[in-house]
Structure formats: structure tokens, C-alpha cells
Design brief:
Strand order of the largest sheet: 1-2
Largest sheet: 2 strands, antiparallel
Oligomer: single chain
Number of helices: 10
Radius of gyration: 17 Å
Shape: globular
Number of strands: 2
């Protein structure tokens, strides 16, 4: 279970790719990190099958922390973040994320793999559906507090349970129920994802402490070398991706990304 130069390059490559795409698409991209860890990086290290799913989920959330922090800072500088909305989402979202990660720790890895594969197929299908703009640039009508709190709770549980940042669910919910323009929902989502990922990671760490078959340098269900090696490049690339997104239309990339997710979902499921 020793980490090799090949493993180091794997984690750096993962961080580079998901950092840029996370900032560009406005989502945490854990749905890409998890399969890469589960099928590519961790098997090459001969990590025990009993812990590989939970370790992939927990490490993925940890990598999302620097990615979302960097990308949300870029969106904040562009004026795309309303901090009142972030606060309304984050308060219940933090609790929900901790609850979700705790529930996951008590579910067998095989069931988690099936659930996650099904989730990827559903998410990829909804990404093909065109999203309607419900607001206009400069639309500063504050959303109602109760729907925002409920969305934060639902997305937080979802984030902690599946080891996802939560942006793939938060963005369409904000557009649909809070009537927030999609360009602004992407920035708000990234800021919220930072808090949700922070607490979700804490949950995976606490619930994995002392578990058997974990590799050296694992902190609960978070593999710290992967966290650092993927997190550092993602910290810089996410800001670049967010800046590029503000100048281009990411719709075509969304469609290609959705097709990739569907293929990975079927691979995990079958």
C-alpha cells in the first residue's frame, strides 16, 4: 500500500482536471473524482475492497474543499455571489452534510456503489434538459428564506451521503424554486459547496477513525496524500476555470460532461 511516483502523478492529474472543470461548470465534480479514485488510483495501490468505496467518497469531498474555495472567490470577484443566500443554504446544509456522511458510514460499500451509479445516470439525464433562465442579469429580488433553508438541508444531506459537493443539485433547485439566474446560481453553489464539503469531510474523518484495512496516512475515510496532491493544483486551476466560464458559454461542455457521467454510471452499476 505504499504510494509510488505513479500514484502521485495520478492524484495531481485528478486535481488539475477537476479543478479547472469545477470552476468552469460551477459544480464540485465529485461525480468524476469518485470513479477516478475507485477504478483508477486506489486499485493501483491495492487498497482493501472493504474500505475503497468509503475512502473514495470521503477523499473526494476533501478535494472539493480547496476547489470550491478558489472558484467561489473568483465568482465573488465577478459579483455572482449573494452572501445572504449562501448563509441561508449553509446553516441547514452544514447539519445535513454531517448527517449524510454519518449515515453513509453505516452502509455497505457494494450498496453505495449501486446507489452512486444510479445517481450518476439520473444526474447525467437531467443535465441534457435545457435550463430555463428565471431571472435577468441584475435581478436582485431576495429569495424567500424558508425555501432556501429547505434546499440547503436537502443538498447538504445529499452532499454528505454521496460524497458530492452538491452543486449538481443545488443549481437547478435555486433556478427553479428561488428564481435565481443560472449565472448567479453557479457562484452561490460553489460558495455553499465549500461549507457543505467541509462538514461532510469532517463526518467521513470521524466515522472512519480506527476502522480496519485503511491505508497508511489515511485520516478516517480521507486519504490525506490524495487530498494534498489533488487539492493543491485544483486550488489554482478552479479559479482559472471560473474566469474562463465568465467569458464563454459552457453549455456544450455540459452536454459532453453529461454523456461521460452516464457512461461512468452504467459502468459502476453493471
Amino acid at each position: 500500500m505504499e504510494i509510488s511516483f505513479y500514484n502521485i502523478s495520478q492524484f495531481v492529474l485528478i486535481g488539475t482536471a477537476v479543478g479547472f472543470l469545477g470552476g468552469f461548470l460551477g459544480v464540485g465534480l465529485s461525480m468524476v473524482i469518485i470513479p477516478l479514485l475507485y477504478y483508477w488510483a486506489f486499485p493501483s495501490m491495492l487498497i482493501a475492497p472493504e474500505v475503497i468505496v468509503h475512502l473514495s467518497f470521503g477523499t473526494s469531498l476533501a478535494i472539493i474543499i480547496p476547489t470550491s474555495l478558489s472558484a467561489s472567490w473568483a465568482h465573488a470577484q465577478a459579483g455572482n455571489i449573494k452572501w445572504r443566500v449562501v448563509l441561508l443554504l449553509a446553516i441547514p446544509g452544514i447539519l445535513g452534510s454531517l448527517l449524510g456522511s454519518t449515515l453513509t458510514a453505516h452502509i455497505k460499500g457494494e450498496l453505495l456503489r449501486i446507489l452512486f451509479g444510479s445517481l450518476l445516470i439520473i444526474l447525467s439525464a437531467q443535465m441534457f434538459i435545457p435550463k430555463k433562465e428565471t431571472g435577468t442579469p441584475g435581478d436582485d429580488v431576495p429569495p424567500r428564506s424558508f425555501p432556501a433553508l429547505m434546499i440547503g438541508l436537502v443538498v447538504g444531506i445529499f452532499s454528505g451521503f454521496f460524497g458530492l459537493g452538491g452543486g449538481v443539485l443545488a443549481i437547478p433547485l435555486m433556478v427553479r424554486f428561488l428564481r435565481i439566474p443560472i449565472y448567479r446560481a453557479m457562484g452561490i453553489s460553489l460558495a455553499f459547496v465549500f461549507f457543505a464539503a467541509l462538514m461532510g469531510t469532517a463526518g467521513y474523518i470521524l466515522n472512519g477513525l480506527g476502522k480496519p484495512n485503511l491505508p497508511p496516512f489515511a485520516w478516517g475515510y480521507v486519504y490525506t496524500p490524495a487530498w494534498v496532491l489533488a487539492g493543491v493544483p485544483s486550488l489554482f486551476l478552479a479559479k482559472w476555470g471560473a474566469n474562463v466560464a465568465s467569458k464563454t458559454g459552457p453549455l456544450r461542455i455540459h452536454r459532453v460532461f453529461a454523456l461521460l457521467l452516464m457512461l461512468v454510471g452504467f459502468r459502476m452499476l453493471f
